[in-house]
Amino acid sequence: MSEKKTRDTNPGVGCEVTGCKYNTIDCRCSAARISVQNEKAATKGETYCSTFCPRGTC
Ligand code: SF4
Q: What is the domain partition of the chain in residue ranges?
């Protein structure tokens, strides 16, 4: 059975990382909170969500 379903989500966070266990069917984030990291980031691609958790592994 898929984990991917609509759950309580962070209303201001849209996310298309479908491989994350917190990602919902409507491309939102259901984590209690998220942390975006890389203090040296200078571009969008250098930022990352440290709350990301691959489905089935955590
Ligand atoms: S935890 Fe991060 S990567 Fe996962 S759905 Fe939320 S914002 Fe996206």
A: 1-32
Ligand 1 atom 3: the closest Cα is on which residue?
A: 52
Residue whose CA is closest, atom 8 of ligand 1? 15
Let me know if 15 is exposed, middle or buried by CB neighbors in 10 A (0-12, 13-18, 19+): buried
Q: What is the pLDDT of residue 1?
A: 46
Confidence band for 58, pLDDT divided at 50, 70 and 90: confident
